[in-house]
Design a protein that fits this description.
Elements lengths: L25 H56 L5 H15 L2 H8 L6 H19 L9 H25 L5 H9 L1 H26 L16 H10 L1 H24 L23 H26 L1
Helix pairs in contact: 1-2, 1-5, 2-4, 3-4, 5-6, 5-7, 7-8, 7-10, 9-10
Length: 312
């Protein structure tokens, strides 16, 4: 007999052998449910990928056409007038629209449909917007400077090459000359663009100092002081570290692309951005990479030294 004082044992969790051996269709139905869910998830991913590809292709086509229109407008103006004076004013509206529309690219990086650093893209786009809205648009006295035409030509060639490269890549039909231009022209265009931007900011300094443009003097109700003149000088000085970081990334990526193309069985190039190492690494292709990088940074430094000595 069982002791009445003994604690009662819990009822067994298994009441029959059926609990050990599920019905024949149970496991199969579970696997089918998992397969259906996987298929649904894959279909959703494919749908999102297709929509992203359609949007990116459309965006790059629009931007390619926009910068081509800008290039044709510049050529037509110069042919008709025989001078660059007034050229910027004739294309200002088109330039501001397409350059401002490039902010969409920061959104592409943020939501992940383009695997590029949000910070790098944001800095590039914002620096362009700064030149367009706060230098050439805000200080009209510099619009006829040769340096403005220089960076406009560089921007136009660069953007036509870049957006057409992305467009044809998305369409899986990339012409060789576009690919070549994408990975070679930057060696010339990048320092020229930097020269144009720096000399344009330098040309704007006297007008900013005389007019006090965008500056706030004390006393004021906000009790804040801001001098746009010194802000521009700081921006010019920041060109070396900012451009050095971007160039390190760009040169490393392109050298890697060239080295992979030299191999017979090279894997396809991933357009994901590469993080350039903060220290020099001994690897294949590093010497060529550092030589290009060093030359361009030295050129930027020389330009800045000349401009700063002129200011002082």
């Amino acid at each position: 007999m069982r002791d009445p004082a003994a604690p009662s044992l819990p009822a067994p969790a298994v009441s029959s052998l059926a609990d050990f051996h599920p019905a024949p269709g149970t496991m199969a139905s579970g696997e089918e449910d998992g397969t259906v869910e996987e298929k649904e998830n894959n279909n959703k991913k494919k749908t999102k990928s297709t929509l992203a590809t359609i949007w990116l292709t459309s965006y790059n086509i629009v931007m390619t056409v926009g910068w081509l229109v800008l290039a044709l407008a510049m050529i037509r103006f110069y042919v008709q007038k025989g001078s660059h004076r007034g050229l910027y004013r004739s294309i200002a509206r088109t330039l501001k629209f397409f350059q401002t529309f490039a902010l969409v690219e920061v959104g592409h990086c943020a939501i992940g449909i383009v695997k590029t650093s949000v910070i790098v893209t944001g800095v590039q786009v914002c620096s362009r917007l700064f030149m367009v809205w706060f230098i050439t648009n805000g200080i009209r006295q510099v619009q006829n400077e040769e340096s403005v035409i220089l960076f406009l030509v560089v921007w136009t060639v660069t953007e036509i090459t870049r957006y057409s490269y992305y467009t044809f890549s998305l369409l899986n039909h990339l012409p060789y000359f576009i690919k070549w231009a994408r990975y070679n022209l930057f060696i010339i265009l990048y320092p020229l663009g930097v020269v144009g931007e720096l000399f344009t900011i330098y040309a704007a300094l006297p007008f900013v100092r005389r007019s006090g443009l965008y500056s706030m003097r004390l006393p004021n109700k906000y009790n804040v002081s801001f001098d746009y003149y010194y802000c521009l000088i700081i921006v010019m000085l920041s060109y070396i570290p900012c451009n050095a970081h971007f160039l390190s990334y760009l040169v490393h990526y392109i050298v890697r692309h060239v080295e992979q193309n030299k191999k017979v069985k090279a894997p396809p190039i991933d357009d994901t951005p590469l993080h350039f190492p903060h220290t020099l690494q001994k690897q294949h292709g590093t010497e060529e990479q550092h030589e290009i990088f060093k030359d361009i940074v030295i050129l930027d430094a020389c330009i800045l030294v000349f401009l700063c000595s002129s200011i002082l």
